[in-house]
Amino acid sequence: MSGPRITVVGSLNMDLVFRTPRMPLAGETISGHAFRQIPGGKGANQAVAAARLGGAVTMLGRVGDDAFGRQLRDCLLADGIDASQVLAQAGMASGVAGILVDDAGSNSIVVTPGANMALTLEDVEALAPTILASDLLVCQLETRLCAVMRAIEIAKRGGVKVVFNPAPMQPLRADWLALVDYLIVNETEASQLSEIAVVDRATARQAATKLLAMGAGSVLLTMGGQGVFVAGQGDNSRMLAAVPVEVVDTTAAGDTFVGAFSVGIGQGLGIVEAATAAQYAAALTVTKLGAQTSIPTRAEVEQFIASRAARAPVEAA
Question: Are the C-beta atoms of 42 and 255 separated by less than 8 Å?
């Protein structure tokens, strides 16, 4: 493996994807267009994105002792990811996500975590040498909170940069944000963490400013078609415009952004440059269906950027 060394602690799920003309109402049955079974899970998606975009990735997670578990692990191996610490949990099913994608590209997701919740503090402690030898640690919240926070503590102790995507959101101790170098949140997560409703650029600035005051090193607030608000210490903030594309499915766009951004930071890019490159990778993702099936390679992203007259403009926020 080559490129920045990135360790991902997180989830692996098998996504069961239903294409539907619209979201069904409560109690309603409608006919869908198609069904696909696609590897996913926020942790695995972010690991795959980082690997395809040039990172040397190791993943820590748990799958069930079932066919889904074997498929999920094989998919990581196919992308060159070190999956030696993705182990099968006896007597448990792998994580599964039921995903509805409508004709507008919007999605609704129900996740059953399964073996993801079997990840323990002892598992993380055993991986400490790998974390400490990494350039970055990437975490989300589809596994046990205590295991995630222990991984972050180990990284911080060893001077390893931490990229934290607190999704799905759950209550966090405020002092934990001081352990995070790069906090990546969407509007909902930012609103819940900061207690400021994020609806536009002005409220994004307010929420990001509060999250910085709570201890986060930098904040990247992704806002879909509005772009991403990037805020650093010292009133260093920018709004990066979204890259316009025809949306097919927004699944894994956020995860691709996280993986791509992590690679950019690991390669020495500044936060704005890394976020801009991640915007292009995420934009490509939404033009395809599914999670890992939609994540682009480095060559695809470079070609996509070259096909545009200029990089996404940086707008003063």
Answer: yes
Residue 255 known to be catalytic: yes
Query: Which pLDDT belongs to residue 256?
Result: 96
What is the percent of the chain with per-residue pLDDT over 70, rounded to a whole number? 96
The residue assigned the tokens 């999670």 is 291
Q: Is 255 annotated as a binding residue?
A: yes
CATH number, domain 5-315:
3.40.1190.20
Question: How far, in Å, CA of 138 to CA of 7, rounded?
Answer: 6
User: Do the beta carbons of residue 137 and residue 180 sit within 8 Å?
Assistant: no
- Ligand-binding site membership of 44 (annotated): yes
Separation between Cα atoms, residue 43 and residue 11, nearest integer Å: 4
Long-range CB contacts (< 8 A, 24+ apart) of 154-160? Answer: 154/124, 154/125, 154/128, 155/131, 155/179, 158/131, 158/132, 160/131, 160/132, 160/134, 160/135, 160/136
Give the predicted TM-score (pTM) of the model.
0.91
Please tell me whether 285 is known to bind a ligand: yes
Chain segment 107-118, per-residue pLDDT in tens: 888 889 999 999
Q: 271 in helix, strand or coil?
A: helix
Rounded (10°) CA dihedral 290, 293, 295, 301? -120
Q: What percent of the chain has pLDDT over 90?
A: 78
Q: Is 43 annotated as a binding residue?
A: yes
The catalytic position among 79, 102, 123, 255 is 255
Report residue 235's pLDDT band, with 50, 70 and 90 as the boundaries.
low
* Distance (Å, whole) CA 257 – CA 245: 15
Could you read off the pLDDT of 258-267 as tens digits, one per residue? Answer: 999 999 999 9
Rounded Cα distance, 55 and 206, in Å: 33
Q: What are phi and psi of 128, to 5 degrees?
A: -55, -45
Q: How far is CA 200 from the centre of its chain?
A: 22
**Above 50 in pLDDT, residue 19?**
yes
CA 306 – CA 113 distance, rounded (Å)? 39
